[in-house]
């Protein structure tokens, strides 16, 4: 741990951002239509600070025809740079809950890019059909993302989008025919040569000294708590989300209402890793948001739908924020010790994760519950 | 025949020789006594939960109540050794309870649902206190370590439950094995078969069901003990209260349902 701390300090003077001055456009992602905001809006730091935008994430896509947001920080050593590179404190809870199968998997990988200590990886995967796709995401996704980062050295937001999209595509391809079958420990009975009916959500956050890159596929969710208010960093992929519904129908698929909206009446999400038999309707391409870290950022929550089905973003944020504050108050000046040591668990975050999990269970969540709370406060 | 089988047979013979009451009546009487004891335990647990503090005094109480569960399963095992048949078709429980039987008793993973439900009921009203870190002295303030251990025990219990279910399935399917089909065909055709061939065949299967029941009962008791071990004494008191209330009240409900069914001449 001491080595890591040292390495971190050595790296912390490196500029966190290498944004090119690409022309920037931004759009607002509202459920039905995307509205392109005025060009002069692009220079402003973060639209999520606007009260009107607090529930509208900036969604970046690298599709040629798509509007793409360059959400540039104003300066390379902005707020948050004071502890650049050091892994934020975090807390994790992942329980089977009231289900008989555990299909959630959580991955926390501080300093996951070899030779580059600025980035930390957090992922929540909620499997369906069997647990092996979620497990292989837990075991492999951070390595794939790290490889992509090392290879392409992303600087601009667009490049980060591309890194995440390539990573998800590679992870998805890992379950295709010809690849080794999943571990024989899983309960799935069709282990060879592939399990077409198995898949997983993936919500992945790469936390750097000056920005947070979130890539999402499925209905797990990332929420940023900023000054006590929730900011979506991902939008759930539900088959009845209007744009997803259009995409599925354009590909020749159908959404059938059978215990909720389901692709071909089967899968209750419109994107996932795996699920080969539902391709091309269910895709593995993530939606990516790149968010500049700012003063006022309190924590980042990643969780499976076992939490979000029964706890609102607002309530989750309120609880997490209070836990972080209490832990700070209780520990006095030493409160950040755990956070500064890199990759350590953090009392406030652990309290928040457990409380949110218990709240989900108290509210009769019938699913596995996985919660990751990441402390983003850089000074107290 | 294995030595276990022989012991089993000897057990049955001695029980018959001593002219003990048949297992159903015997165990039914025991069950009534045990219910009364559980009712008394419940009152004591309630009083203990209401009186603040004194965790030291709660541990012996929790151990005593657990001891009563252990005693129950000892007595049940003794009855099973006499005769496994009535244990899968209990007359001392109500039709309502029997509707939810798993391998001759309650499903072990129910204990986790009971814990999560009770904990949840205690949790939400105290959420604000818990957020600011005030202890609630009940199941609402289970620690991260406790929740992790409970989750681990839960996953293990699900796995063992499945193993037992699988074993039960194999025994049940063996009722239609080739030997049985051959035997029953011969009997139907009035062909001469060895006098006790059927008896021997069925006994083998009964013995295997006996093993299933013993394993299931062992898992039930171990789940209770394992959970209580993870909980602190105050939490354990709340958990044992919830368990006793659920058991006693569902039993009472079921019995009155059965009685009403009898009264109206409706077959149950």
From TrEMBL, chain A:
<keyword id="KW-0904">Protein phosphatase</keyword>
<protein>
    <recommendedName>
        <fullName>protein-serine/threonine phosphatase</fullName>
        <ecNumber>3.1.3.16</ecNumber>
    </recommendedName>
</protein>
<feature type="compositionally biased region" description="Basic and acidic residues">
    <location>
        <begin position="69"/>
        <end position="78"/>
    </location>
</feature>
<dbReference type="GO" id="GO:0004722">
    <property type="term" value="F:protein serine/threonine phosphatase activity"/>
</dbReference>
<dbReference type="InterPro" id="IPR001932">
    <property type="entry name" value="PPM-type_phosphatase-like_dom"/>
</dbReference>
<feature type="compositionally biased region" description="Low complexity">
    <location>
        <begin position="51"/>
        <end position="62"/>
    </location>
</feature>
<dbReference type="InterPro" id="IPR000222">
    <property type="entry name" value="PP2C_BS"/>
</dbReference>
<feature type="region of interest" description="Disordered">
    <location>
        <begin position="43"/>
        <end position="84"/>
    </location>
</feature>
<dbReference type="InterPro" id="IPR015655">
    <property type="entry name" value="PP2C"/>
</dbReference>
<dbReference type="GO" id="GO:0046872">
    <property type="term" value="F:metal ion binding"/>
</dbReference>
<keyword id="KW-0378">Hydrolase</keyword>
<feature type="domain" description="PPM-type phosphatase">
    <location>
        <begin position="89"/>
        <end position="376"/>
    </location>
</feature>
<keyword id="KW-0464">Manganese</keyword>
<dbReference type="InterPro" id="IPR036457">
    <property type="entry name" value="PPM-type-like_dom_sf"/>
</dbReference>
<keyword id="KW-0479">Metal-binding</keyword>
<keyword id="KW-0460">Magnesium</keyword>
<comment type="similarity">
    <text>Belongs to the PP2C family.</text>
</comment>
<dbReference type="Pfam" id="PF00481">
    <property type="entry name" value="PP2C"/>
</dbReference>
Automatic annotation (TrEMBL), chain B:
<dbReference type="InterPro" id="IPR051886">
    <property type="entry name" value="Seed_Dev/Stress_Resp_Reg"/>
</dbReference>
<dbReference type="Pfam" id="PF14144">
    <property type="entry name" value="DOG1"/>
</dbReference>
<feature type="region of interest" description="Disordered">
    <location>
        <begin position="1"/>
        <end position="21"/>
    </location>
</feature>
<feature type="compositionally biased region" description="Basic and acidic residues">
    <location>
        <begin position="7"/>
        <end position="21"/>
    </location>
</feature>
<dbReference type="GO" id="GO:0006351">
    <property type="term" value="P:DNA-templated transcription"/>
</dbReference>
<dbReference type="GO" id="GO:0043565">
    <property type="term" value="F:sequence-specific DNA binding"/>
</dbReference>
<keyword id="KW-0175">Coiled coil</keyword>
<protein>
    <recommendedName>
        <fullName>DOG1 domain-containing protein</fullName>
    </recommendedName>
</protein>
<dbReference type="InterPro" id="IPR025422">
    <property type="entry name" value="TGA_domain"/>
</dbReference>
<feature type="domain" description="DOG1">
    <location>
        <begin position="24"/>
        <end position="260"/>
    </location>
</feature>
<feature type="coiled-coil region">
    <location>
        <begin position="150"/>
        <end position="222"/>
    </location>
</feature>
